[in-house]
Fold this protein.
Amino acid sequence: MGPMRFFLPMVFLGALCAQPPQEAPQPGRAAPEPKNLKILKPEEVMPAMRSYTAGLGVRCEFCHVQGDRASDANPHKVTAREMIAMTRQINTHFGEAKERVTCYTCHRGEQQPKARPDSPAPAGQ
């Protein structure tokens, strides 16, 4: 799996959480440990969230309940987990140690991916 395993999560959930942690760490204290992780590892969370922000053009509250990022009450969070699993599965089939499919592959900075490209403008306009 290698580097692919780390890049995909970054692309998906980074879009969801590009804000600072809920609690600013006290001087000399580490940031609070993320809770309710089902796919990402703690060290993957913040890089992933930044990546997802870019890939989907959203902020943390798109997938997270404000004030309780561990909550699964927002259905977008469940969908994000499914998308992370999907892109990881696709990338494992390439057999290379590099990522081929990310959130941006389909979303291109939009919340909803397009099924096909926009139609070109008619000639002469």
